[in-house]
């Protein structure tokens, strides 16, 4: 009876460790997703065109075309998208343009439909 309790305790400890690992992984995904959403918001505020945003997204997907098992591939896509958005020239030019003139918010890449 005591041996069975010890085994059950070990199983519960392993399950708890797996849950904690998953919680940490989800926390990291949440942080990465928040970063990506903030970058997208900044680009929207700069009136980035849908075409330019589409090119960033397609570039991200093309660079992550290696078939990997589920969660690892999704995190790689999210991470690469964050890197692509961070590297976007509009985000780096924005502070200088605002300092030059208040009219600099108009983006020449905007395409009206």
TrEMBL record:
Residues 2-46 form a coiled coil. It comes from the Eukaryota. Pfam families: CCD48. Keywords: Coiled coil. InterPro entries: CCD48 (IPR031601). This is EFCC1 protein. It comes from Dicaeum eximium. The gene is Efcc1.
């Amino acid at each position: 009876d005591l041996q069975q309790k010890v085994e059950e305790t070990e199983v519960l400890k392993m399950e708890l460790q797996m849950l904690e690992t998953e919680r940490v992984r989800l926390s990291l995904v949440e942080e990465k997703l928040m970063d990506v959403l903030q970058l997208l918001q900044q680009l929207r505020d700069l009136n980035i065109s849908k075409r330019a945003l589409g090119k960033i997204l397609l570039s991200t997907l093309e660079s992550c075309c290696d078939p990997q098992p589920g969660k690892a591939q999704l995190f790689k896509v999210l991470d690469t998208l964050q890197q692509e958005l961070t590297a976007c020239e509009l985000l780096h030019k924005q502070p200088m343009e605002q300092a030059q003139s208040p009219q600099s918010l108009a983006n020449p890449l905007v395409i009206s439909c």
